[in-house]
């Protein structure tokens, strides 16, 4: 999850034009997706992803991360948290109703990691319910002043351990935390 220095994951109107990313960061993200076989999205983020990734590698200009991520996207199970979406298509399941119970059951399944990409509303819900085991925060060197916060309505303190850091030449610092 990309986050500003003051804790926002998007601007007041959902803007993400402040996020700094380059090929080195994309290569690093490829290592994270390699460890996951399931992607978890909120509906809005899923709609954005679904509009691009299924065919992104078919462009004649596609290379590197675009090819890798498009292949991973198609092969991975996609879980979409939504109370309005009925059918999301091939290799995709809609998670609605008792989302917490469904995700607890999903976490018990065998396989690789479940990787949540973006989806601040889902992050708020899953953080509150203690369902996130690891946080990868990509802290961008920008102060937004307002926007959609990374953490919202957290009821209880969450203790985390810093596992890993990685600095990129964009000025972004990746912080990997696990629940203590």
Overview in brief:
By secondary structure, this protein is an alpha/beta fold. The chain has helices spanning 23-34, 43-52, 64-75, 99-108, 120-128, and strands spanning 2-4, 8-10, 36-42, 77-81, 92-95, 113-116, 134-140, 148-149, 160-167, 173-179.
Write the layout of secondary structure elements.
Blueprint: E1 2-4, E2 8-10, H1 23-34, E3 36-42, H2 43-52, H3 64-75, E4 77-81, E5 92-95, H4 99-108, E6 113-116, H5 120-128, E7 134-140, E8 148-149, E9 160-167, E10 173-179
Number of helices: 5
CATH class label: Alpha Beta
The CATH architecture:
3-Layer(aba) Sandwich
CATH homolog superfamily: Dihydrofolate Reductase, subunit A
Overall pLDDT, averaged? 93
Q: What count of domains describes the coordinates?
A: 1
Q: Report the span from N to C terminus.
A: 20 Å
CATH topology: Dihydrofolate Reductase, subunit A
Give the % helix: 25-40%
Largest sheet: 4 strands, mixed
